[in-house]
Amino acid sequence: MQRDEQTFSIIRKELERQRRGLELIASENFTSLQVMQAMGNVMTNKYAEGYPGHRYYGGCEMVDQSEQLAIDRAKQIFGVEYVNVQPHSGAQANASVMMAVLKPGDKILGLDLSMGGHLTHGSPVNFSGKLYEPHFYGVSKETGLIEYDKMEEVAMQVHPKLIVCGASAYSRDWDYKRIREIADKTGALIMADIAHPAGLIAKGLLNSPFEYCHFVTTTTHKTLRGPRGGMIMIGKDFENPFGIKTPKGDIRMMSSVIDLAVFPGVQGGPLEHVIAAKAVSFFEILSDEYDQYAKQIVKNAQSMSKAFVEKGYQIVSGGTDNHLMLIDLRNKNITGKKAEQVLVKADITVNKNMVPFDDKSAFVTSGIRVGVPAVTTRGLTEEHMLQIVEWIDTLLMDPDNEQKIITVRSAVNQFMEQFPLYPELG
Ligand SMILES: *Cc1c(COP(=O)(O)O)cnc(C)c1O
């Protein structure tokens, strides 16, 4: 077969783009070379519907081993009883839990998308808002913090079957104990979606949801720094309280109900090459090196948020406990859209983001979301964060000055040469 030079040349250019830029998208990271190697190999050829030891296809001896390794390592990392590593993404993980515990039309209660929530937490354009009846809580206009009182008030009113906590653009920790009190009072189950801060939770740097939340979902490619994918966990397996019957007509523990919701409920054959890469990334997370990495993420985020505040930027909630911050640009006279555009021109990648009580649309927005997991992987430390904020401020204060854009871009490109990315790839 002739080599597809066209596609490989595009991939090569993507490598060069990643190498020369400052990656500040809070949901992105750079996997290790061995994680990528585990993804790009013969495992992609294998069909393995079912679970280790119980497959609908022959020849699963090897993929059984790597999937079991991924499961065992994830259990060890988070100290949990049950893990399903098959969800193709975070969205599929959430769809599976909802599929397991809800019927169409059931009520769910999640964080409003415009306040930092995720599409899969009940947005009307997503399956979660179409199949189920969504209700929302938000953050306080004054403090930017989750309003647990409001969560309780809505829960008492509508009696949701599922409360969803977790966010895509919220820089503070969560009070899972309080959420459990609300859930117990109103008869709800809880799904904690830790897609963003999972790596910090893994290392004990943030509150753990497992004692209080019935189901915990995550992506594996954000702070966890693994391949693109999802995962579902249960801290302590509990008896199926829903009378949900399995295909065999019996009622079992929640773990088996979740397994059946992932496959055959939501997905077909698992991506065994990605699951092998998940196993490799979990191996890395169990190392001291990753320990240091997680701690450095927090140090870098603290340093960056302090530098922004010193320059008069308004960070929603005033700071951060995790790896990201949401910056409200309304006092700086620039929209999120314009800010994203000017920064991208200088090879600094962020995303525009709505801020709580935003008066602009999701396409324009009043804010940007900035995260440090990817630059921390590159090797940047606290003092480098000050330089990044300096560059960002220079551009946002004078966004139409093409000369400044060119100057900052070449400074960024030169700076990033000190932090080689995948040198093995030439
Ligand atoms: C990123 C994210 C997801 C979805 O992950 P995908 O892998 O993109 O489907 C789900 N929930 C939250 C809170 C997220 O931040």
- Structural class of the secondary elements? alpha/beta
Largest sheet: 7 strands, mixed
Report the average pLDDT across residues: 96
Named once each, the bound ligands are: pyridoxal-5'-phosphate
Q: Numbering strands along the chain, what is their spatial order in the largest sheet?
A: 4-10-9-8-7-5-6
Q: How would you spell out the order of helices and strands? A: HEHEEHEHEHEHEHEHEEHHHEEHEEEHHH
If you had to describe this structure to a student in words, what would you say it looks like?
There is one protein chain. This protein has 426 residues and is an alpha/beta fold. Helix content is 43%, strand content 13%. Strand 8 (189-193), helix 8 and strand 9 form a beta-alpha-beta unit. Helix 2 (33-39) packs antiparallel against helix 10 (272-285). It starts with a helix and ends in a 10-residue tail after the last helix. Residues 27, 89-91, 94, 118, 120, 166-168, 193, 195-196, 219, 230 line the site of pyridoxal-5'-phosphate.
List key phrases describing it.
single chain, 426 residues, alpha/beta, 7-stranded mixed sheet, 4-stranded antiparallel sheet, 15 helices, binds pyridoxal-5'-phosphate
Short description:
The chain is 43% helix and 13% strand. By secondary structure, the protein is α/β, with parallel strands linked by helices. The strands form four sheets. Strands 4-10-9-8-7-5-6 form a seven-stranded mixed sheet, sandwiched between helices.
